[in-house]
Design brief:
By secondary structure, this protein is an alpha/beta fold. It has six helices and eleven strands. Helices cover 34% and strands 25% of the residues. The radius of gyration is 19 Å and the shape is elongated. It starts with a helix and ends in a 13-residue tail after the last helix.
Length: 212
């Protein structure tokens, strides 16, 4: 049983880069996903939502379907519309929803920061949306080549976003802890003046051509 309440602080301390590297898989989302405000970070269970470009009705249904500890992960087709803003963030927080990751735009970024509601999007846009197609909620989606399923673990910080398959969560967390411990040892050696070439044994990969 995944206990994100117990693990959230550790996951954020480990960071998305370490989690990705330790996973030995392509669990990262495209680099276009960026925090809507500086300092935003989140950990939660994915609730996938598929919306039509320029239509945010599916996101309203997503708020209704999600609950405490969840993160809405939305396929908005990458369209630069303001799918999400202050009103929806307040409604989401009241349900315990921990954040938003969307291939599309958000707005009201100052207000989102003031609320402490973490949002990661591929654009910031004030352009309004329609409300016609209810979309899908809870079914798997694909975000720029990455499949996201309900219950997958989402971790996002300033470096990026990772989506860890629920069935691999324990394995990846253990591998991330091991990697962080090894990196601490490497850092100690580097602070003593050793070169990265020696700490990581890169010399065996060959030497560059240099002037005679």
């Amino acid at each position: 049983m995944i206990d994100l309440d117990a693990d959230a602080a550790e996951l954020l301390r480990l960071g998305t880069a370490t989690l990705y590297e330790a996973s030995r898989s392509d669990c990262f989302l495209d680099a276009a996903f960026r925090p809507a405000w500086d300092g935003a970070q989140l950990v939660g269970r994915a609730v996938p939502v598929a919306a039509q470009a320029g239509d945010n009705l599916a996101l309203h249904h997503g708020i209704a379907a999600a609950g405490d500890g969840d993160v809405l992960v939305v396929d908005g087709g990458g369209a630069p519309f303001g799918y999400w803003g202050e009103v929806m963030a307040v409604a989401a927080q009241a349900r315990g929803i921990r954040g938003l990751v969307i291939d599309g735009g958000v707005r009201d970024t100052v207000q989102l920061a003031g609320l402490g509601f973490p949002a990661f999007s591929t654009s910031i846009s004030i352009r309004g949306t329609i409300k016609q197609w209810p979309g899908t909620v809870g079914l798997p989606i694909t975000l720029r080549g990455r499949v996201v399923r309900r219950g997958d673990v989402v971790v996002a910080d300033r470096d990026g976003v990772v989506v860890l398959p629920a069935e691999r969560y324990d394995e990846v967390l253990a591998a991330s802890r091991d990697r962080a411990e090894k990196e601490d040892a490497y850092m100690a050696r580097l602070r003593e003046g050793e070169l990265t070439l020696d700490v990581y044994d890169f010399r065996r990969l060959g030497a560059p051509v240099t002037p005679a």
